[in-house]
Amino acid sequence: MATTTTPAVTPAAPPTRPSTRRGRRAALTPYAFLLPGFALFCLIVAYPLARSFQISLYDWAVVPTQASTFIGLDNYVRGIQDDQFWLSMANAGVYLAITVPGQVVIGLAVAVLLDAKMPGRGIFRVLFYVPVITSWVVVALVFKYLFNTDAGVVNWLLVEVFHVADANIAWLQSRWPGLMAVSVLGVWKGVGWAMVIFLAALTGVREDLKEAAALDGAGAWHRFVNVSLPAIRKTLLFVTVLLVIGGFNVFISVLLMTGGGPAGSTEVPLTYMYRQAFDFLDFGYSAALSFLLAIAIVAVSYTQFKLFDTDEDGGS
Amino acid sequence: MAVTSPHQRLTTWLRFALAGGTALLMILPFVIMLSTSFKPQTFILEMPPELIPSEPTLNNYREAWTESSFASYFLNSLYVALSTTFIVLLLSSMMAYAFARFEFPGKKLAFVALLGGLMIPGIITIVPAFVLAKSLNLLDSLNGLTLFYAGGAVAFMTFLLRGFFEKVPIALDEAMTIDGAGAVRRFFHLYLPLSRPALATAAIFTFLGAWDEFVWALTVINDPEKRTLPVAIAALQGQRATEWGLVFAASAIAILPVIVVYVIAQRQFMAGATAGAVKD
């Protein structure tokens, strides 16, 4: 690979070299170690990022023989006025509203359960983490099968077993049920990750504090709310911020389960952006949308830190 | 703590039942997937669903492996994931070494640049990355996949390894230097061997990332022969919408190595999952 060659590297020098050259060589050593990886990073991550911004300012011509026209911020203005883009953002909001609390609450509950000694604790932890390591493609297809209208297990349970629905629900053929199915998948896949992080944090909660609270007559719930929960507050914030970022990036599940349809009603920002780029070949607009999404993610993450990470000294 | 009261024992069993029940619910989709993969096509859409197939068959696996060419997709994925892992481990550990044990002009800038790169989800750059891959003639190329996967992973793995390299006792480093060992020798004979657990974690996560990656491969691979497993599975479902048994047999083939590695190397998985997460 061309990026691994660096002009600065020479094999170990014989000790008879003049000391000034040795000094210069020593100064170059860290660069020799840094350069191959950093060059690759610049080529694959940094350069495309800068290029993305450039492309977003053009009516980009996909065919190399045609000229691209510079249109300034027009793509951004178009994005802000695009109802379909806002619908995709609203859908991401619905997804976030279900999956973030779902993963935090269930993940924390399971972590508390598994924090105490019990038989089979290790095996349970392993089982909860299996969805996390399984590819999105596989789990999205499994859930597509489970939410199948006529022959899906979910409808069979709802109609035949629990009798909570009169007829089969067309889960993946309309907006709200579609978003619901995708969100259920999101919670199921991510809960194990939240659990592992919470479990690691709970292990760090000082045993003597819990015991002192128990001696004071505090029940399990009070010990959890007054001792454990404040102790893992930072972790709670960290997990929430990462889950929100992850929720904005929901993509493969929507692409494979509903395809963003019907008529774009379950579109999320990334499926919409992807369609603009690779179905409509509107690279400039797609790049602008990706920056609008990035701005939204940064703004929301920043707000979360401002809201929940203020009381550094004192407070609850 | 020698004697447990009946009350304590009851709560332990309640917790066990609750945790066990939830755990079963978590793996139920996988059980259904596996069970479907062993069913003949005629039984798949039958209601009520059978958890244990009454006429189990291996036909779906046979067909996926040979007729649907999953043997070669498996090899494609293996090649890409292994080569990505090798390149990322080499380049990230070199960078981590530079950051952990050297002072040099531009260090801070390079570090901040990598940190910035970490926060950018890869998909934001998919359009320019596609333009770049096209101009480098790396569309429809497995080596192209490797190059882009490796570039996307080096920043995070550098951070992971840097933390470990910093914990290597400086006295050992100095002792080797006095013995006349150069930076390269110290890197290979001191830092790499002492960081084996971290290297294992980095290797597993890099491998898994490349093995499971879907969107980029879907975008740049058009030649059906160059497909990786996730792309091939999605394509199979797209073409033969109702042959779920075949789709899930192919899926099982794709996730089997992941599960095996996971069961063997659980500790590295957990270490990677919580890396940098628990700070208080």
Structure, explained:
- The complex is a heterodimer of chains A (316) and B (280).
- Chain A is mainly α.
- Chain A has two domains: 2-56, no CATH class; 77-308, MetI-like (MetI-like fold, Orthogonal Bundle), CATH 1.10.3720.
- Chain A is 69% helix and 1% strand.
- Chain A contains 13 helices and two strands.
- Chain A has helices at residues 19-56, 74-80, 83-115, 121-133, 136-146, 153-161, 175-203, 207-215, 220-231, 233-248, 252-257, 269-278, 283-308; strands at residues 58-59, 69-70.
- Mean pLDDT of chain A is 86; it is low at 1-18.
- With 280 residues, chain B is mainly α.
- Chain B has a domain at 71-241 and 254-274: MetI-like fold, CATH 1.10.3720.10.
- Chain B is 75% helix and 0% strand.
- In chain B, helix 1 (6-37) packs across helix 13, helix 4 packs parallel to helix 7 (142-167) and helix 10 packs across helix 14.
- Chain B is globular.
- Chains A and B meet through helix 1, helix 3, helix 4, helix 5 and helix 6 of A and helix 1, helix 4, helix 5, helix 6 and helix 7 of B.
Task: Summarize the structure in short.
Chain A is mainly α and 316 residues long.
CATH architecture of the largest domain in chain A: Orthogonal Bundle
Main sheet characteristics of chain B:
none
CATH superfamily of one domain in chain B: MetI-like
Strand content of chain B: under 5%
Strands in their spatial order, largest beta sheet of chain A: 1-2
Helix content of chain A: 55-70%
Question: Average pLDDT value of chain B?
Answer: 88
Global geometry of chain A? globular
So what's the overall shape of chain B? globular
Most extensive interface: A-B, 93 and 92 residues
